[in-house]
Amino acid sequence: MDKKINNARKPDTFDSEYMEGLDKLFKENADLAEFKWFLDEAYDRAYSAEHKKRDVVILGTMIPEELVIAAGVQPRWIIGGSLGSTAWSDDIVPRDTDPISRSVLGYINRPESDFSDTLFIIPLIRDSMRKIAGELRSKGMKICLVDIPPDRRDVYGAEKFKKQLKEMCAAAAAHTGSKVTRRGIVSAMKRVSAARAALRRFMEVSRGKAHIITDAARMLVGNSYYMTASLDEWTFRTEALSDEIEYRAGRLKNRKRSRPEVIIAGSPVLFPNYKVPFLVQDSGLSVWGTVDPLTMKSSVIYDKNMMRGSMDRLIGNIASLWRRYDASSAYIKNDVIYDCIAYLAGKGSVEGVVYHVLKGQIEYDFELERIESMLSKFGIPVFRLETDYQYQDVEQLRIRMEAFSEMLVQNRYRRERNVS
Amino acid sequence: MTAKTEAMSMKERQDRRFINRETQTAARYLRRLRELPGAPEGIEPFYRTLGRIYADMEHVESEGRKVIGTYCVMTPPELVYAAGAMPVKLCSGDYTAFSVGDDIVPRDACPLVKAVAGFKQTGLMPVYEDCSMMVVPITCDCKKKIAGMLSDKCDIMTLHVPTSRDDEDIEEFIRQLYVLMEKLESVIGSRITYESLSEAFRRVGYAQYELSEFIRLKKKTPYLIRGSHAMAIMNSASYMPADVWGRALHKVNESLKKSIAENKTVTAKRLPRILLTGSPIVFPNIKIPLLVEESGGIVAGDETCMGERGMWDPAVITDNSFDGMMYALANRALRPCPCPTFADNTQRIYRLKQLVKENQIQGVIYHVLRGCLVYDFEYKRIEDELGRIGVPVIRLESDYNEEDIEQLRIRIEAFIELIKLKQPAEKASFQRRSFLK
Q1: Is the dihedral of CA B228, B231, B235, B237 positive or negative?
Q2: d(Cα A179, Cα B386) in Å, to the nearest integer?
Q3: Nearest Cα to B174, choosing from B381, B332, B54?
């Protein structure tokens, strides 16, 4: 990495965590030329001091950004993931607040931040988001709340959500000063569909190719969607990366699958706090994929039929498809994550599940019991990994993860012996 | 003995142990309440109700009507009464059920939800098992997830509580109330009519009228009633029909008026006046008000949702149509509510300042149940705001067990001492002599 940390201030935890993560990913994937662009995007996202006028910032990931893009602006995302930024919110939030919310609020309170001309779009998926919204409003910041109806059985739920999205779209348009048109929405739907399709393709082609791209690097590519300033370039680069991986995989065929494959489910793993994927790969496991709100979002791809009709119909289509795949913690039951894990388990794709629970995100913890009992029917073990953004627990987690890995190896050995 | 009978007897033993522990804890707290001096005449029906539900584990006295469980003050009881059923608040403060729930729900979930999960898991608490349906307003993450868990075990309906209180939110909530109305009608098998809803308004309105009278009397100095006794009265409202509760409260009010006439007070001493706010205080988890009053303070104000706040705001009908009544219910549930579920909850600060002024409060205890993040988030702002008007605030974090009682006692005693130091010394009971003359 030839980039230097912005010299305006002394490097701190935020910088060191970010740079260490990027450096490690760079070293592990140095041969992959197309991957470097994603590292640059991640770097620029962290150190870009540029604050555009009439900026639109989305807190978290669970918003259909196509409606913001239709309002003429590429949204900036503040999704958390950094231990360093949690330090900037320590005095504001209660002790038990989840690290993502801490990190999000910390990033907003970062000393060099300027959000004076920014509209914050806040999906109310959990209590802390609601209270962050109150905090920002009390500081006079411009906010737009998207209140997600928590019960999928609610007969008016889809309609309510559609109304929320319409209001969000109008708020973004009023802030940017552009007019939202039907054509603008269709164009945005096409662009995000292309990006999500590119991500899905990348995840498919890069699966099980740790000798070409590491699991943590694959996750960074997924995360970089929320770091890029140019959606179309990101799509183009992702396709190019997939092409490069396919080409290299063709040359290095017949690599025997040796590592047990797991999925990482539960709380989203966000860069720069990649201790979980690093631990998984260090323990001799291979990440088949992740089942979290970020991954499930890539399933929201619109077909031609969905892009027809009036503006009202288009927003209705976005709302209904989004609600079907929304795996956030906004619902009384997270059936999307449950069903996805059940599907993968039924297909026999995975040998174990690492269920990641960030401290304070009890919504994911609540789901664990039924997921565990479902997986036990398939004989798939679940490893509940509770952690926060601190690094003190890495060695303890490593010991547990290694034990889990050994158990999966034993399981595989036993299974193969029984078959033979 | 076969494995099956052995397993059954183990289950029976577990159930017996659960019942023993649960009833003993409830009986112990009821005894502590009874031992606290200064209880007004007429309080016995309230004790009896709490005793029936928790210490004797009996069914709710629903007068033959179906029982509908509710989890929050945002479920309008009027609708349930109008459908011909009886609403029962199921938020629980039970330590034994909490310990069962601790194994079922995540460690960091709040104890109230753990207790609910524990009761539902054991299936031993009649008040939970009697419910034909449960209404769960989604006010926090724990309520959201417990709604999901309960939906596997019983018929539930969720109410999506909006994050603000503007006209559109009220309209949206009204629509949900209409859905709730339909659901109640189908579960109970009777129709909600204009007349039945009006009658329900009268029934709840009477209880609220008596409550407002009670709160007026409670504000008097010197004190006519202790806060712990008042909390027992408020908690019992969850398990009594509103009119029965109102009539019982009327008797307490009469006895308080008699005390004024006879110049009878709880104590002649000037005790530090404490306001309780924060996470709900639900029987039998009344250790904090008891500790305050055992440590020489008096709980003069209560801003918790299982306390006075739960019934304080009456529904105001400005339009006599059926729709107008539904509007009044939605309006009452959301507009005056200082619940931290709302993104902007500035009105809670106004409400607290109002309570401080009206009740001459000298200190505020901010109760945070472990894991109750929404209340914890608001602590700092409230501490700052009350600090500006010179009212000290102490944050007490507690759980549903008795292990922290001594630590809480030390902190509460220190807080009360601090307030005593601030207030001018009381006059000596005898004439001071001058030795210099």
Answers
A1: positive
A2: 46
A3: B332
Q: Could you report the predicted ipTM of this complex, rounded to two decimals?
A: 0.90
Cβ-nearest to A360 among B108, B175, B370: B108
- Cβ <8 Å between B144 and A365: no
- Count of CB atoms within 10 A of residue B350's CB? 11
First to last CA, chain B: 92
Q: Do B172 and A134 touch (CB under 8 A)?
A: no
CB contact under 8 A, A138 and B158: no
Q: Which residues of A touch B (CB under 8 A)?
A: 92-97, 124, 126-128, 130-131, 133-134, 137-138, 145, 147, 149-151, 154-157, 160, 329, 331-333, 357, 359-360, 362-363, 365-366, 368-369
CB nearest B374 (choices: A127, A155, A368): A127
Residue B286: band (very low, low, confident or very high) from pLDDT cuts 50, 70, 90: very high
In SS3 terms, A216-231 reads as HHHHHHHHHHHCCCCH
- The closest of A296, A405, A409, A294 to A354, measured between CA atoms, is A405
Q: What is the mean pLDDT of chain A?
A: 91
Q: What is the largest CA-CA distance in chain A?
A: 69
Model pLDDT for residues B39-95, shown as the tens digit of each residue: 999 999 999 999 999 999 999 998 899 999 999 889 999 999 999 999 999 999 999
Residue B105 to chain A, least CA–CA distance (Å): 6
Q: Would you kindly state where each structural domain of chain A is located, as residue ranges?
A: 2-196
Contact B90, B147 (CB under 8 A): no
Span A406-416, average pLDDT: 89
Q: What is the pLDDT of residues A307-339, one digit of tens each?
A: 999 999 999 999 999 999 999 999 999 999 999
- Which of A93, A154, A332 has its CB closest to that of B144? A332
In B173-272, DSSP assigns E strands to none
CA of A149 vs chain B CAs: smallest distance (Å): 6
Domain A2-196 carries which CATH code? 3.40.50.11890
Question: What is the spatial distance between Cα B26 and Cα B94, in angstroms, rounded to a whole number?
Answer: 8
Banded model confidence at residue A419, pLDDT cuts 50, 70, 90:
confident
Token pair of B169, please? Answer: 């939110």
